[in-house]
Specification:
CATH superfamily: Glycoside hydrolase/deacetylase
Number of domains: 1
Distance between the termini: 25 Å
Helix content: 40-55%
Shape: globular
CATH architecture: Alpha-Beta Barrel
Strand content: 5-15%
CATH topology: TIM Barrel
Oligomer: single chain
Structural class: alpha/beta
Number of helices: 10
Largest sheet: 8 strands, parallel
Bound molecules: zinc ion
């Protein structure tokens, strides 16, 4: 096992060097360096997280212990820089009404976010995907059909949901932007889907603060949830698709203002 890990580390280093030379083909490099035994190892070691939240389960395993290639297969619950920073993640778009308003709020505040997209929605609105990339935000694969029970389905089904959506998002973005993360709908990750996404260069993306904004509980309650729960962790979940999202847009603006007043910075989730 130690020899295997050492060999893989060398592979990772080699992949890193290649990435530096050819960033635009990072996805291809990640796939090419995945050993055939990698997926089995991930499946055997990981454990499913029912909702993507919290620090338990597989996320408690040091990422070095997960033989998944250049990207860790553990759920990301931290930001790249750490410290007093949060990461805004915005799910279920892109949407022709709510995504532009969300982008406007982020631009007004000079804040970057991660957009977790439904594959067919990305394909239907490539202009929005390109706007998101051009504004410096990052892309996340949020599956084809948003089946929150996909963890109960076959590996073949999960593979289709993850990889087809990745392709749709990449094509909508114009073929040059990376999809940095994969977030299972409703947090329905499996060890298999985490390993698969990691092998394809996408870090499985969890969350710490669930605003429940999609249930439209009122702007005040969404903001209160962020104020109360941000101490639990930095990755905050909002939505710009899947329904009427005016509360989400207003709450996002108020949360960003409050977070800035409290001294928080803004960062991306750790890849
Ligand atoms: Zn979702």
């Amino acid at each position: 096992m130690a020899r295997l890990m050492a060999r893989r580390r060398n592979i990772v280093i080699a992949a890193g060097s290649l990435l530096a030379l050819a960033g635009v083909i990072s996805g291809t490099v990640a796939v090419a360096t995945q050993d055939t035994d990698g997926m089995g190892g991930v499946s055997a070691q990981g454990s499913a997280s029912p909702d993507g939240k919290g620090g338990g389960g597989a996320s408690a395993v040091p990422s070095d212990a997960l033989p998944s290639g250049p990207v860790s297969a553990s759920l990301a619950h931290e930001t790249e820089r750490g410290g007093k920073n949060v990461a805004l993640t915005i799910d279920d778009g892109p949407d022709p009404v709510w995504t532009p308003r969300t982008l406007a709020v982020l631009k007004q505040n000079g804040v970057k976010a991660v957009f977790c997209m439904i594959g067919p929605s990305a394909r239907a609105h490539p202009d929005l995907v390109k706007q998101i990339v051009a504004a410096g935000h990052r892309l996340c694969d949020h599956s084809v059909d948003h089946n929150t029970a996909m963890d109960k389905r076959s590996e073949e089904y999960q593979r289709q949901q993850v990889l087809d959506a990745k392709k749709m998002i990449e094509e909508a973005a114009g073929g040059t932007a990376a999809v940095h993360y994969y977030r299972a709908p409703g947090g329905a990750f499996t060890p298999y889907s985490r390993g698969l996404s990691a092998a394809n260069g996408m870090r499985p993306l969890g969350w710490n603060v669930d605003t429940h904004d999609w249930q439209r509980p009122g702007v005040d309650r969404i903001v209160a949830t962020v104020k109360r729960e941000v101490r639990e962790g930095p990755i905050i979940l909002f939505h710009d698709g899947g329904g009427e999202r005016s509360q989400s847009v207003e709450a996002l603006a108020r949360c960003i203002s409050w977070l800035k007043e409290e001294g928080y910075g803004f960062d991306f989730p750790k890849v």
